[in-house]
Amino acid sequence: MSTFMNAANKYRRAHWLAKHHLAPLAKLYEMWIYLIHNSFIPASCEIGEGTSFGYKGIGVVVHSRARIGKNCLIAQNVTIGGRSGHEEVPIIGDNCYIGAGAKVLGPITLGDNVIIGANAVMICDAPSNSIWGGGARSAAEGWRRRARPSARGGGEPCIERIFQVHSREAFVANVLFGSNIPVDFDCPSGIAKKVAWQAAAFQAVTGDTAYCQFVHQGSLVITRPDFQVVDQVELKPGYLQRIDQYKKLSDWAIRHEVRFLYYRFDHYDAITHGFFKRMKRSEAKVVMEFATYPYTAERAQRHKALLAHGEYLAYLVRKIHVIDEWLHIPRAKRVLDGVVTYMPHKNIWGIPVTVIDNGVDLDAAPLRRLALSEGGPLTMLCVANLSFWHGLDRLVRGMCAYGANEEARPVRLLVVGPETEELKKLHNLVEEMGLDDSVMFLGPKTGADLDSLFDEAHIAVGSLGLHRIGLDRGSTLKVKEYCARGIPFIYSYREAQLRGDEAFSLRVAADENAVDVGAVVSFCDNLGDAAALAKEMRAFAERRFTWESQMAILADRYYETVSL
């Protein structure tokens, strides 16, 4: 039935009838396609063998003179048509993929093995073995709008609203750093940057090219460590997306001969286990990273939040995931070669643990140029995708208590990061305590904008609430970045690489009490030469916090035994 219901099969019947001079019957098939699939695929167009339409061809429009090659896949809501002022229409080569909502218009030719991303607008020729995108973008190149002569339009300029991502020549990807992390190429999150930094460092240590995998706007995206996209695969929507993601990721990894997979823990259910099992059968080494372990307290808090918001169905689904995970954890040691974490564990789930520390890309975290105001308010800076375990509410409550002393030095807090549920709660707390003039929410910042905030801040804010997820020690990424940038910081847990009495850091109590902001001000006032301290912190980071030193541990333990 599914074959019969696909628009491609009705088109082939219509095309056969038209070629045999049975135009009225062919017209009936065209009407059938229109009524059933809400598509226009005329019998007169040329579509090669093996070409099919995603989602049965819903919403597809094809020009009556268009030519499409063999073994192509055309997603839903694609338009392949003409353009005003031009008689010629698109010619599409073999083995092409055109993503959902894409528009291929006018006198252009797409070569063989071309990928067109979702929502792209193609009005210029695309060479064979290339990838072009619209909704996604390359962080290295970004959007480009440029005029150049059309290859078939007699010299008339055409405006490209697309970008060429990378050559699609066949390549081997020996090393893949995978994750279930959504990535925003305009402003990658700290976690996404961490995955990219790990891949870059592993590449530097081993000499083998490493790739990263993220999720972006409903697609599986493979990038280089600099976020340059090298491949993109559209995923099914809704609850099927996760199943489709791991299926297509394993297909991609096996096709590109991945021999070392380093995957960030999401949750371990039947889908995850099946993915690792398939990778293991392909003779790849499979290593999983736990950013936090144990993670049960953090998960319980998230489940509690779902109930508090009345999201009972989501809560039930999460509980089913927990049961599924409980059933599959005993089988994990059959498919995992190792586990990596940042806490001093010997084994997890019966699997030997390799303990590493968080690192930082020193090139991405430049030493700050001090621009501290003389006699002005003391500026505190927090850069985070805010969660409850950051404990920033403790600092806000402390600012409220501190502000009762009218003679005290003014303080202000700059909060940098995307909108999250915890950030919304913090907004409400700030309004409730009347601190709107002292706490500024700046949204995501990158590049020079972020650097300037570090330049003008007196002190940065690390995690103040790890105890809320049952941890009294940890290894957080932000502390490493603060050290690399040379900015003093406060935190509330036992940091793996710190004694707790360093001159550049202030450790506060790990409890629910408000932070003593007066003590923070006093600490900053007694720091001494800020420029000298910044250089000392940078040197400290260079000795202890490079990703190369941490990835060398992984390479020594796992990668030397990989058969390449």
TrEMBL record:
The keyword Cell cycle does not apply. Transmembrane segments: none annotated. The keyword tRNA-binding does not apply. GO terms for molecular function: acyltransferase activity. Signal peptide: none annotated. Keywords: Acyltransferase, Transferase. Pfam families: Glyco_trans_1_4, Hexapep. Belongs to the transferase hexapeptide repeat family. PANTHER family: SERINE ACETYLTRANSFERASE. This is Uncharacterized protein. It comes from Adlercreutzia hattorii.
